[in-house]
Every structure is written in C-alpha cells, then in structure tokens.
Design brief:
The protein is built from four helices and seven strands, in the order αβααββββββα. By secondary structure, it is α+β, with helices and mostly antiparallel strands. It starts with 7 loop residues before the first helix and ends in an 8-residue tail after the last helix.
C-alpha cells in the first residue's frame, strides 16, 4: 500500500519556486542548500530580497576584507563565516524589516553588540535599511575572528 504522506523529495519539490529562483522563507530569508565555500554564500546573497541584497554584498565584502582567509558556508539557510570549516564566529539571516547578524562569542567583543540572546556568549546586531556602521562592524569581525572557538560548531 502506498503511503499517503508525501515523501521528502515530493515535499522539497513543492517548496521550489516555479521560476527557478530560490524560495523565500518567512521574513524573506532565502532557502539555499547547505554547502561550503564562496559559491553557496554568493547564491544566498543574490537571493536576498530588496535592499537586503546590497547589504548582504557589503557584509560579505567587509568580512572578507577584515579576515582575508575566512571560511564560508551555508547552513540552516544562513551564511556562516569562520576561521575553519564548522567552527564559526558569525552568521546572518534575513527578517522582514532587518538583517540579524549573530556573533557567536559576541559577549567577548568590545564594545558588546547590543542584541542579547538566551545564550550568554551570543550577541546580535539587527541592521535596518541604511543603518550599517561599517567601521564598528569591521572591528567586531576582526575581534570575533581572533577569539577561541566556542560551542557554535556545526
């Protein structure tokens, strides 16, 4: 007897956009397959909606400028940046009105990013349209890249 529940492949196909563009999840976050390297991160950024696409390009450029040998990946529909694969210091994610940057050891940064988390070490930076402080962001990226690995491996 055939199962009445669609298989994983069928469910995934229903989420795909009919025009070949990545599906935008709730809040406008692009759904991009997991992968390592620059290409999947560039695909994620290219799929970011509206003004967030330019912000994503700028964040990526500032991160690469601050940490030239940074490792990149897409995990959980978000770009991750680290000093080695699977040991990350930063990620970001699209929401309806802002992009949330996660500093996994953010409580150790100076000054500490403003957004608190339920995890004591994690801090957030919510960036709304036109509100990126490039100097402060770059300083945090440089600091975060030099911190010892935390429990944010994955």
């Amino acid at each position: 007897m055939a199962s009445k529940t669609p298989g994983k492949t069928e469910r995934a196909a229903k989420r795909d956009s009919s025009d070949g563009k990545p599906v935008l999840l709730s809040g406008g976050n692009p759904q991009i397959a997991k992968g390592y390297g620059d290409a999947p991160v560039k695909a994620y950024i290219a799929a970011m909606p509206d003004w967030k696409k330019d912000l994503g390009r700028r964040l990526d450029a500032l991160i690469v400028d601050a940490v030239p040998n940074v490792c990149k990946a897409i995990k959980w529909n978000s770009p991750f940046y680290g000093m080695e694969n699977d040991v990350w210091f930063l990620s970001f994610h699209c929401f309806t009105k802002y992009v949330k940057v996660t500093f996994f050891r953010g409580a150790s940064l100076n000054p500490v990013p403003p957004g608190k988390s339920k995890y004591p070490e994690v801090r957030y930076l919510d960036i709304h349209e036109g509100q990126l402080d490039e100097g402060q962001f770059s300083a945090w990226v440089r600091q975060a890249s030099r911190l010892p690995a935390s429990g944010c491996e994955g």
